[in-house]
Amino acid sequence: MRLAAALLALLPGLLLANPVVRLDTTAGPITIELYEDKAPKSVANFLQYLDSGFYNGTQFHRVISGFMIQGGGFDQSGQRKATRAPIQNEADNGLKNKRGTLAMARTSNPHSATAQFFVNLVDNRNLDFTGKNSRGWGYAVFARVTDGMNVVDNIARERTSSQRLNGMMARDVPQVPILITKAYRLKDDSTPAKQVNEEKDAQ
Description:
- By secondary structure, this protein is of the alpha+beta class.
- The protein is 22% helix and 32% strand.
- β1 (20-25) and β2 (28-34) form a beta hairpin.
- The radius of gyration is 18 Å and the shape is globular.
């Protein structure tokens, strides 16, 4: 009875657990917890791209040491990938751009984020929400790195230069492309969700 009661007490927490995903990169694996409770639109958008295989084969195309690494928008050859419509900025969710967090990349339009994201290398307070105006919206944090921050730091040390992306010159592009080879969801036990489903089908 006590065991059953303990399991029931844990059930709500298990049901409300945030999704966890992994990015397998050419620099190593990065495990990420998504803040579905705090940034539901951003997380739903990210997972749609992830589940469709959109991020597979994309590169970290903008790397600035002491600031952030950005990816999720260009393929290995530097061509921009077609995206869905932009989403609402959720930077007013109370989450801060602290080291190890992920935020949605965007243009000067506060509500222009689509697929691209960045990982903060340091606490970037200047990127936080301060008000609902063109200068104060900030960048919406929606996740954090739970394992593999050493991989992120190694990516940040890569040499960069100006290169063509989608036919236009861009700065801070790694000289050797750093790719996301595969992006996928993990179960609570860190087993890929697809593998778990295959094991169930085989039983």
